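hey so u asked for the seq, here:
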Amino acid sequence: MPRKILVVEDNGDLARLLKIHLQDMSYKVELAFDGDKGLAKAESGEYDLVILDIMLPGTDGLEICRRLRSKDSYTPILMLTSKSSELDRILGLEMGADDYVTKPFSIRELLARVKAIFRRIDKLKSGQQNGKLTFIQAGELFIDPQKRHVKVKGKIVDLTAKEYDLLYYFARHPGRVFQRSQLLDRVWGYGHDGYEHTVNSHINRLRAKIEKNPAQPRYILTVWGVGYKFAELEDLPS
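ran it, structure tokens below
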């Protein structure tokens, strides 16, 4: 079955342009031109991806993102933001958006982001079918990939979508050292030339949330001159 994408964008010309190009890639596309209708459609859970503008009449994109992430089911979200709204981009990612594209953007870039998100989802589904999508217990850290929940000492840790993806990828490969470029390719799903600092900032935020002492991390370790690794499970306290 073709993937089903919901585009929530109040600029009718842009929304229809996106629909044409997404349909050319064999996706099934529906449009919503305001936040209230977009939220109603998105909450139906019928979509494989929601492309969501932040500035919308009615319910804004940040609130739609927050509402979707409050549900147990997980629908990937790609946010459309204006060049000047850095705070909105940060808030969107903190609320759980999977990625964002800054306006004005090239259609080619947006399609690359869409394909990257679907590649990541396919990898997760493949792992589930092969029996690999199981709970991970690493010391006091517990990861539930079905619900995308993370707990430390039994308490839920609030992670962004990308923070979760990065942590889950690390935890599935304990002891393996990754360069920043490798993490960008495997977690973000496409090249970010010159954006290795993105990995650093995500790891710093992860450490602040899951480590007892972020300055002396136990889970995500720095391998100087190379990159990062997740600690060997046997080295972590039970």
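Helices lie at 12-24, 35-42, 61-69, 86-94, 107-129, 161-171, 180-188, 196-210. Residues 136-235 form a domain with the Arc Repressor Mutant, subunit A fold (CATH 1.10.10.10).
lmk if thats what u needed
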